[in-house]
């Protein structure tokens, strides 16, 4: 007992003094860093009813997500608070920004000072493993190096042929008698079919039930279950550690087992085997030449599946949502496409040389960025260029471990970059427009999307083929656009339209 009293008498004060001393050291170290870098206090600190845990802010985010307005809610706060603000809680701060200079600083200039946010990584790892979207540092660099050759050596000609086969199946699902269809649902099926064939050599055939097996149907369901769970955890933020979903875990295991089957086949692939002559391009087989790790192969396939399936479907859905509501724009796009490829399948070069088609795609990505927000976390004490001082023009101190959330919804609606009527769909605004770091649909810096050209080519191909196939579109939904925020953003109500078939058809 005496020993215990002695221990408490001397140890507890020592621990207390040690903690106080450490806090003072950190405080003066931070002050020195702030002074040396010209940092100023934040221009705007958003008010919180609960400054300890920020529960009121979490509840607002969850309610906005449920109502289909999470991105607008987040973007609206940024516009209200001059594009950069700070939320201070007892345990940690979070910085929110939509300043091009801040994004350039984090994603490129000071790339090594920031990493993917731990919250986002922890939410996505259960499905995507240690893929290119869930790793940092050397592990990320290794993953990117493995993937890069598969994209830089791409020959789009056979891939466009593959896309056309699946597009023909999509056409069969579109009623031509004036009845209503949900085009968004079909686009997500189409890109799932093309992405899985591109990646694994076997399509899920969601548009062709006669060829789809039980295994493919289950994989699609399990994949979607895991995506929804990842989004739920991202929105929960630091509270996700208290969340457990047994069904999502079981879905993850089944999805991994499905992909593992194709990884095993690809691992045994032999380029010198006569039986392989004439085989179509298979991403997984080419990727297997870069690594012997089957786990790494599976993780990269699932990551690229997200990038090649979900993002392209989101882009196409939002684009045709707007085209159906802007008949003049659709007619102008149709005139450009038919004047160049009236009755033939488009080539990659032809698709890349249609300026109005690119304007329509850019305007869609501006208004409806497929990944509307992201987060970086400081790996050391650092800064961002703007957000400090009374005018917000001074550097802002970013303490190690602080998350910086950037929102493309607000960035892409800045009048100082995009002019008037920033909430309107106007492809013509892109005539001569060069927004630089004010337009980031594919990220920027070293982490810029490897599959950007593949996604743009697929979206352009499908848009061109739709325009060739249908003379006019008619919207069949009067509801205002509401977001369905999964790992990508799309319309909560789908894309309800009716079509008028074209008089002539394309010759294959």
UniProtKB/TrEMBL annotation:
Could you list this entry's UniProt keywords, alphabetically sorted.
Heme, Iron, Metal-binding, Monooxygenase, Oxidoreductase
Tell me the protein family, please: Belongs to the cytochrome P450 family.
Known CDD domains for this protein?
CYP52
Q: Which cofactor does it need?
A: heme
Gene3D superfamilies named in the record = Cytochrome P450
Membrane-spanning segments: none
Q: Where does heme bind?
A: 449
> What is the organism field in this record?
Apodospora peruviana
Family annotation (PANTHER family): P450, PUTATIVE (EUROFUNG)-RELATED
Gene Ontology MF term list: heme binding; iron ion binding; monooxygenase activity; oxidoreductase activity, acting on paired donors, with incorporation or reduction of molecular oxygen
The molecule here is called Cytochrome P450
């Amino acid at each position: 007992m005496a020993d215990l009293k002695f221990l408490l008498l001397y140890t507890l004060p020592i621990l207390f003094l040690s903690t106080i001393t450490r806090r003072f050291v950190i405080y003066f170290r931070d002050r020195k860093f702030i002074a040396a870098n010209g940092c100023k206090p934040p221009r705007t600190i958003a008010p919180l009813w609960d400054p300890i845990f920020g529960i009121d802010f979490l509840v607002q985010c969850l309610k906005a997500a449920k109502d289909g307005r999470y991105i607008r809610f987040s973007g609206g706060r940024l516009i209200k608070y001059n594009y950069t603000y700070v939320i201070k809680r007892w345990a940690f701060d979070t910085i929110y920004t939509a300043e091009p200079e801040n994004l350039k600083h984090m994603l490129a200039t000071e790339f090594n000072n920031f990493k993917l946010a731990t919250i986002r990584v922890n939410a996505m790892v259960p499905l995507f493993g240690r893929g290119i979207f869930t790793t940092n540092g050397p592990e990320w660099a290794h993953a990117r190096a493995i993937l890069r050759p598969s994209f830089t050596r791409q020959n789009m000609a056979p891939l466009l042929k593959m896309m056309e086969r699946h597009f023909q199946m999509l056409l069969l699902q579109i009623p031509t008698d004036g009845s209503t269809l949900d085009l968004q649902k079909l686009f997500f099926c189409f890109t799932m079919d093309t992405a899985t064939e591109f990646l694994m050599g076997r399509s899920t055939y969601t548009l062709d039930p006669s060829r789809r097996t039980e295994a493919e149907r289950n994989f699609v369901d399990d994949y979607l279950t895991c995506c929804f769970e990842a989004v739920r955890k991202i929105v929960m933020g630091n509270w996700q550690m208290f969340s457990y979903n047994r069904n999502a875990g079981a879905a993850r295991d089944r999805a991994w087992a499905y992909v593992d089957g194709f990884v095993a086949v690809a691992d045994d692939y032999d380029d010198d085997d006569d039986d392989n002559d004439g085989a179509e391009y298979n991403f997984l087989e080419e990727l297997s030449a870069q690594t012997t790790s089957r786990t790494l192969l599976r993780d990269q396939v699932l990551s690229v599946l997200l990038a090649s399936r979900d993002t392209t479907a989101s882009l196409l859905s939002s684009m045709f949502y707007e085209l159906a509501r802007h008949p003049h724009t659709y007619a102008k796009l149709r005139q450009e496409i038919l004047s160049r490829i009236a009755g033939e399948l488009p080539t990659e070069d032809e698709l890349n040389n249609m300026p109005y088609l690119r304007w329509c795609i850019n305007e869609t990505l501006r208004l409806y960025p497929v990944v509307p927000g992201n987060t970086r976390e400081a790996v050391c004490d650092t800064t961002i260029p703007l957000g400090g001082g009374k005018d917000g023009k001074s550097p802002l101190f970013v303490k190690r471990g602080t998350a910086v959330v950037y929102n493309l919804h607000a960035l892409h609606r800045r009048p100082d970059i995009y002019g008037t009527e920033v909430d309107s769909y106007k492809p013509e605004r892109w005539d001569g427009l060069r927004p630089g770091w004010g337009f980031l649909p594919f990220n920027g810096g070293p982490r810029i999307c490897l599959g950007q050209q593949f996604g743009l080519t697929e979206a352009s191909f499908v848009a061109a083929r739709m325009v060739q196939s249908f003379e006019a579109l008619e919207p069949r939904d009067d509801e205002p656009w509401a977001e369905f925020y999964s790992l990508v953003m799309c319309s909560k109500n789908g894309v309800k339209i009716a079509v008028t078939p074209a008089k002539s058809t394309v010759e294959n």
